[in-house]
Amino acid sequence: MQRGQEQHTEQDGDIGCCGYILMAFSYVLVALFFPLSLCLTIKVVQEYERAVIFRLGRVLPGGAKGPGLFFILPCIDDFKKTDMRTLTYDVPPQEILTKDSVTVAVDAVIYIRIFDATMATVNVSDAYQSTRLLAATTLRNVLGTRLMAELLTDRESIASNMKVQLDEATDPWGVKVERVEIKDVRLPIQLQRAMAAEAEASREARAKIVAAEGEQKASRALKEAADVMMESPAAIQLRYLQTLNSIAAEKNSTIIFPLPIDVMATFMKK
After folding, report:
1. Torsion angle, CA of 36/41/45/51, rounded to 10 degrees?
2. How far apart, in whole angstroms, are the C-alpha atoms of residue 15 and residue 44?
3. Where in this chain does the record put each Band domain (predicted)?
4. What letter does residue 110 receive in the DSSP assignment?
5. Helix (H, G, I), strand (E, B) or coil at 205
6. C-alpha to C-alpha distances, 166 to 88, 96, 150, 160, 260, nearest whole angstrom
7. pLDDT-based confidence at residue 85 (cuts at 50, 70, 90)
8. Local structure of residue 89 (DSSP, 8 states)
9. CATH class of the domain comprising 87-191
10. How much of the chain exceeds pLDDT 70, in percent?
């Protein structure tokens, strides 16, 4: 803001003798054609607008006018309106070569507003267009120093870094970059297929590990159950009865009765 005020002070100077003569002549014209001259001298700017007035090519002291009514002199005054609202612009898709030599297409969106209408009018011909072009260049410069994996996982940090650089560059133009967002990162088709195959292989490997761990736990449980049953033959008989109950519930026509373990032991000894 101080730089802008210094520039305003430098631009505001004495309009000279001819300038004062033209001002007097302009006031005479306004008085002669009053009240019709009010149509040319009174202007209105909206709440979200500011008007920068030039008198004989110099910016009037006091900065931008508005909102509301303001007065200009015919023939010697000119003004330019500036929209102070936050505007959104899409940065055109950029083909970028990342740090690990991968070509990606990146889309971004920027939110900008003008905080000083005089600076935006005097210091740059088109503040919004200049900011859009600068955003495209900054996007390529920032992403060119990042790895492809960072583009996919660290978008917030990239957007924050880009916002800081844009805000510093556009400050002399009276433009404030409020937000930068990375919309989309499009990878080559071959790279997408390779990443999908890698992810699928990783998922299959994790599934096999989980299945193996489950088999290991089940085997340990079966071994512990077998050890318990070996210590008590009655437990085996109870297990046989539970199995018979399960078979009977299924309404099968053929039922096999398990022999007592004592009888089987006798035959096994013979």
Report:
1. 160
2. 25
3. 40-199
4. E
5. helix
6. 15, 18, 20, 10, 87
7. very high
8. E
9. alpha beta
10. 74
Phi, psi of 83 (to 5 degrees): -85, 125
What is the chain's length? 270
Residue 75 DSSP symbol: T
- Can you read off the two tokens belonging to residue 40? 């040319």
**pLDDT tens column, 206-218:** 888 888 888 888 8
In sequence order, which residues have a C-beta less than 8 Å from that of residue 130 and are 6 or more positions away? 124, 170, 173
Angle of helix 127-143 relative to helix 155-170, nearest 10 degrees?
140
User: Side-chain half-sphere of 53: how many Cα atoms within 13 Å?
Assistant: 22
Q: Distance between CA 208 and CA 226 in Å, rounded?
A: 27
Cα–Cα distance for residue pair 75/54, rounded to 1 Å: 11
In 3D space, the residue among 39, 53, 19, 205 whose CA is nearest the CA of residue 122 turns out to be 53
> Where along the chain do its domains lie?
2-82, 87-191, 219-270
pTM, 2 dp: 0.63
